[in-house]
Amino acid sequence: MAYQSLRLEYLQIPPVSRAYTTACVLTTAAVQLELITPFQLYFNPELIFKHFQIWRLITNFLFFGPVGFNFLFNMIFLYRYCRMLEEGSFRGRTADFVFMFLFGGFLMTLFGLFVSLVFLGQAFTIMLVYVWSRRNPYVRMNFFGLLNFQAPFLPWVLMGFSLLLGNSIIVDLLGIAVGHIYFFLEDIFPNQPGGIRILKTPSILRTIFDTPDEDPNYNPLPEERPGGFAWGWDKTDHD
């Protein structure tokens, strides 16, 4: 019975969020079981372009380090904000969501050539958080009962928390930068006088991912607690 409930809950996760989160968990499990090593996954331009280890362009986004607090923290935020984006502003627009993934991944890979980062998954998570926070500017948030703020400050609060944990903030800054570029090109610039829509989802992605029929049993994830867990976030309050 429990298996069936878990299976149904898992299948209710929208497809892109389900695929990415599952890939991250399975990659970490494979490393923990010593089936593969991080050295086979990390971003290395020389190995990619000179030795044609193309898989590294993808796997460096799938590994968040060994199982521990940092891994769980990243998985919680990745799952919650990826899902809330897909069920919110990208609902019924799976192709556009996939295109955002590709655009963000491309920019991060490009910047990764110059900032010497070996894993970009955390930056990708921050990008998702940034886009969600800018599209939900009036959501009020609470961080561990200590800070109250509006959603657009969330990426910066996370960067400060990362700094307190002794982590490099370069990863967070990269995620914020790429998230802002996407948000500006998609949400701001096209609505300016003389602005045009630069980001256009390729028709092949629409053919593959967009379906005209919507599942009547679709059950979106509730957004009452954007962090998803009582230990980190309080209820939202829309102005």
What this model shows, in words?
The chain is mainly alpha-helical and 239 residues long. The protein contains ten helices and two strands, in the order αααααααββααα. The chain has a two-stranded antiparallel ribbon with strand order 1-2. β1 (140-143) and β2 form a beta hairpin. α2 runs antiparallel to α5, α6 (94-115) packs across α10 and α7 crosses α9.
Write the layout of secondary structure elements.
Blueprint: H1 2-12, H2 15-32, H3 45-49, H4 56-59, H5 69-87, H6 94-115, H7 121-135, E1 140-143, E2 147-150, H8 154-164, H9 170-188, H10 203-209
Antiparallel strand pairs: 1-2
Helix pairs in contact: 2-5, 5-7, 6-9, 6-10, 7-9
Distance between the termini: 41 Å
Strand count: 2
Strand-and-helix sequence, N→C? HHHHHHHEEHHH
- How helix-rich are the residues, as a percent range? 40-55%
Rg: 18 Å
Order of neighbouring strands in the sheet with most strands:
1-2
Task: Report the β-strand fraction as a percent range.
Answer: under 5%
Count of separate DSSP helical elements: 10
What structural class do the secondary elements suggest? mainly alpha
Kindly report the average pLDDT value. Answer: 85
Largest sheet: 2 strands, antiparallel
What does the overall shape look like?
globular
Low-confidence stretches: 224-239
Subcellular location: Endoplasmic reticulum membrane
Keywords: Endoplasmic reticulum, Membrane, Transmembrane, Transmembrane helix
Protein name: Derlin
Family: Belongs to the derlin family.
